[in-house]
Structures are given as C-alpha cells and as structure tokens.
Predict the 3D structure of the following.
Amino acid sequence: MITALRQIPMLDLRLEYEYMKKDIDLALASCLSHQSWILGPEVKELETEAAAYLGAKHAIGVSSGTEALVLALRTIAIRLKGSEYFDQEDEIITTPFTFTATGDAILRSGATPVFADVEPGTGNISAEKIMEYLDKDGSRVKGIIPVHLYGRPCDMSLIMGLARERGLFVIEDVAQAFGAGWNGTKLGAIGDAGAFSFFPSKNLGGFGDGGMIAVNDDETDGLVRMLLKHGGRDKYNVDHIGYNARLDTIQAAVILAKLKYIDELNGMRRGIALKYEEGLRDLHGLSLPAFPSNGEFHVYHQYTVRVKDGKRDELKRFLAGAGVSTMVYYPVPLHKMRVFEGRCRMAGTLAESEGIVEEVLSLPIEPLMKEDDVDYVIENIREFHEE
Ligand SMILES: Cc1ncc(COP(=O)(O)O)c(C=O)c1O
C-alpha cells in the first residue's frame, strides 16, 4: 500500500492569513474605502504603534528592508560627513554570513564593507573579531552593522560598548528579528538605527515588500523622511539625492493588523524550537543552535541546525523525499560573491563563516504548524541519523 506523503512547507502563509483573516480583511476593506494609497493613514498608525512596541522614539515605514538599510546609512553619512555618500575608504564592519542586502546596502552608501567572522554556536557576528580588527586596523571604521540572524540577538552589550568607546555608529539589521530582545530591550531600538524587513516570509511580513527604520533622535527621523520621498521636505524642490522608498498604505494596513499577533506567533516559534531542541539534542551528527542565554530573547525566525560530516545535502534530500521542505540560509558567504570582489575587506580569516555555509540547514518553523508535523520532522531527522 502506498502511504500518502505529508508535505511540510518551511512556512504556510495561508494558515497565518486564516488565523488573522478578520483583522486583515477589515484592514484591506478600509483601504478600499478611503483609496489613499500613498502615505495613507495606516502608515502613520503603524509607525506610531511600532515605535511604541519597540520602545523607539520614531519608526518610519519604508519600501523594503534593503531600502531601510540604505536610507539609514545615507542619513548617517549626511550627518557624519556632510556629504551625500560615504567614501570608499570609510569602512563599515558587518558579517559575511547574512543575506546579500546587508553588504550591498553598504556598497550603495559608498562605503567599503569589512567582513568579520561569526560565532560557531549562533552564526552571529563575533564581537571579539570586531574588537580584534578595531585594535589592529580600525582607523577607517565608521560603524558596525550587526545582523540578528535567524531572529537571535547579537551580543549588543559588547557591540554597543565597542562602538561607544570608539565613536562608531551601529545600525542593527533586524530584518529577521521583529520582537526579539536583548536584556529586556527590543532589538532595533538599541543602536543608532534599526532596519526591519516586512518581506512576506519574515516573522512580521506584509503582502509584498515593505520595511521600517527605528531611530531615537529627531534629526535622523527628519532626514530619513526626506530621503524616502525623493530627498526633500517638498518633493518639487529637494535637498538630497533621494529615493522613492515609501511604505505602501496597503502593506502598512496588513502589517498593522498582523502586529497584534506578533508576540503570540513569536511565542509559537519559540515553542517549536524547544520541541526541536528536545527531540534532536542527543543526535551526534547535528549541532543545534546554542541555547539562548538569559538576556537573549530569540524569536526563531529560523531554526537552523548544523549537519556534520558533510551530510547536509544528503539530509536535505532525505527530508525532501519524506515531504519535508528545508532551506539553506545561506549557501555563499558575502566575501565569496562576485559583487564584493575588490570591494570589501576581511577582518582576519573568515574560516567559521566558510565552514558554516556548508553545514547549515533551516527546518520548517511555521508558527501555526501542527505539533505532529514537528514530530514528523524530528522522526525523519532521527531516522536519517540512526540508519
Ligand atoms: C538579514 C537581512 N537583511 C536585509 C534583508 C532585506 O530585506 P528586504 O527583502 O525586505 O529588502 C533581509 C531579507 O530579505 C535579511 O534577511
């Protein structure tokens, strides 16, 4: 007899829509009735609610997480240097183990990315490696972009300490970590700016592209608002090289409706992560993500294991055969990509980053997935390792 295969996707956005349908449908209906598509009332409302949620003075809706990074960088360049862009000799330290957009935004702001290696247990940038570079060769460094990868906070005490000591700015890349926290403060509200993404698959995602910048000072807020609308207060008479990077009203409406559920859904993600932890921790062929310490509030945008002995792709295929989707976030570290060739520097060896990309495998972590689907994923991983 042929047993029907289960299909377990990484994420099933239909489940989330069904769960919040009443709120989302109302929000969309309201947009249809007011027809104010550009910077409609929902954008301001979302900005106010998100700022209150994050504990930031301002939150500014923008068109994507990538643009959030670029606008934050450009604003800092204008304020710091009095010029539109950074210069090539200005360095910004970040991780090579992230989505391309983090490094690309640095290039687009005119600066040079300097990649520092990651910690093995978390995949996040190592504060120690940042410090080593600053001590050795840090005179050109202007700032740091820590990426809270997979929804897990970087060590913000160490990173902010280093930055404040040496007069560097910090832009947090919070694209994967809405609602996560460090010692009781929400990520994105700790550095000089926080850049969020509302890409549909993010833990707070819209129905298209969207993003947000959180800042605590009025001047940066004002400048970001100019840059996102072509570069001026008056769009017909502008001061800076700007963008058309506004957040759509319709995306703001959807995100506003979903914001109400973020803590609940992040809680579900944390529950699934705990189940994976309990079900997989004795397997020798896997390294699980380091268990969060007290100050870390991890929201598990991804649950990513490291598969040892060169067996990652084999496990991926085995799980696919059992109907379980998995993803490799990320297969290529940024310093190995053509776009960064001759345009980046390395803060020492990047051995950990080069090793991790060969081993990482992200498991399904749809907050509304059934408990027995999580069990099924665990059983299949166990079967692979115990064979
Ligand atoms: C770490 C990181 N930074 C930046 C981005 C860019 O966000 P977006 O896709 O909204 O432009 C993403 C997501 O795609 C991301 O995961």
Summary: The domain at 262-386 is CATH 3.90.1150.10 (Aspartate Aminotransferase, domain 1). The chain has two domains: 14-259, 262-386. Residues 13-34 form the longest helix (22 residues). The mean pLDDT is 97.
